[in-house]
Design brief:
By secondary structure, the chain is an alpha+beta fold. The protein has eight helices and four strands; from the N terminus they run E-H-H-H-H-H-E-E-E-H-H-H.
Length: 155
C-alpha cells in the first residue's frame, strides 16, 4: 500500500497497467513495482520492456495506491504487507530533491549521467557534466556547452 499526497491526481498517476513507456512515466504503480523488483528506478525503466515484464506487471497488480489529505506534497508513506500478515512501514517525510531535502552536487551529477549517457553517450555526458561544474562560469561555461552541443558525426 502506498499513500500519496492529495495533490497527485490519481486519474493521471493511478494507471495500474500502462500501455506503453509514455504512460509508464506517470504510473505510480509502475514506478513502485520497478523499484521493488530492481531495487531502483530510472527513466530507462519507463520502457516497453519494463511495461511488458510479467514480474513487474504482477507486482503492479498487488499495489494499492491511495491519496491522503494529511500528507505533504513531498511526502510518501508505504506499507508492505507480507504474506504472513507482518507489516513494514516506510515514511519518507521529504523526497530527495525537495526544498527540505535538496540533492547534493554528486546526486545531481549521477542523475544527469543516468539520463544523458543513453542519449549522448557516457563520454559526452561526462564532459558536459564537467563543463557545468562550479569551475566554469559565464562566457567560459557557455563556450564549453556550445562545443559539447555540436553533433558528433560518429553517432
Amino acid at each position: 500500500r502506498i499513500k500519496l499526497p492529495r495533490q497527485l491526481d490519481m486519474q493521471l498517476t493511478g494507471k495500474r497497467h500502462p500501455a506503453n513507456g509514455f504512460e509508464a512515466k506517470a504510473s505510480v504503480h509502475h514506478w513502485l513495482a520497478v523499484a521493488i523488483s530492481r531495487g531502483t528506478a530510472t527513466l530507462q525503466d519507463a520502457s516497453e520492456e519494463r511495461v511488458n515484464d510479467p514480474k513487474i506487471s504482477a507486482l503492479r497488480d498487488r499495489i494499492i495506491a491511495t491519496t491522503d489529505e494529511t500528507i505533504a506534497s513531498d511526502e510518501m508513506k508505504l506499507t508492505f504487507i507480507m504474506k504472513s500478515g507482518e507489516q513494514h512501514a516506510i515514511h519518507i517525510e521529504h523526497a530527495i530533491g525537495s526544498l527540505e531535502r535538496p540533492m547534493t552536487s554528486e546526486q545531481i551529477r549521477q542523475k544527469f549521467m543516468a539520463q544523458a549517457a543513453p542519449v549522448i553517450g557516457p563520454d559526452a555526458s561526462c564532459r558536459f557534466a564537467d563543463a557545468c561544474d562550479d569551475r566554469l562560469q559565464g562566457a567560459a561555461l557557455i563556450l564549453a556547452i556550445q562545443e559539447l552541443m555540436r553533433p558528433d558525426p560518429t553517432r
